[in-house]
Write a structure and sequence with these properties.
0% strand
């Protein structure tokens, strides 16, 4: 059986899973690229932040550190943008798969109540939908969960590196 046939058998829920899978992968790939570029540009970013701090004109070291933390937090917040969407996709995908399971089993029992067991192919179609959507939900959720954790670790690494470089420049 081909992938398209599996998606068709899963019905609307599989199309929703396919859509959110594409969106999630687009976000994860763009974030991975963005973070790799940011890791290479940490010295330039830290210099920009240091310039902003000197433009403020604070002479006190404690004030400089607080201002640096604020600028750094803003920069990191921009780097984290989109990661919550990946986390949401990782969280709701198994739930959508479970919803497909329930809908498929409901269809199977509806067919059984209408025709009895005289038409096992119709009954099997509902059970097939149930199993396909469950698998689809897991296939979408697992890589998004791993990707979210990996990207979050990359953001943490970026933040740590920037903090270290900024502190070296302002103190």
């Amino acid at each position: 059986m081909r992938l398209y046939e599996y998606i068709q058998q899963g019905g609307l829920i599989m199309y929703i899973l396919l859509f959110i899978n594409i969106v999630g992968w687009a976000i994860m790939l763009s974030k991975a690229y963005f973070l790799s570029v940011e890791m290479k540009m940490t010295s330039q970013t830290s210099s920009d932040i240091q310039k902003r701090i000197t433009d403020v004109g604070e002479k006190d070291a404690t004030s400089k550190i607080e201002i640096a933390k604020q600028y750094l937090a803003g920069h990191v917040m921009g780097a984290e943008k989109g990661l919550n969407t990946v986390k949401i996709i990782a969280t709701i995908s198994p739930l959508l798969g479970l919803l497909g399971t329930v809908v498929g089993v409901l269809k199977a029992f509806h067919v059984m109540s209408q025709t009895g067991l005289s038409n096992p192919a119709s009954f099997a179609q509902g059970i097939s939908m149930a199993l396909i959507t469950t698998v689809g939900g897991m296939i979408v959720a697992i890589p998004h969960f791993v990707g979210h954790n990996y990207l979050l670790g990359s953001v943490d690494k970026l933040e740590s590196k920037l903090e270290q470089e900024i502190m070296e420049k302002i103190l």
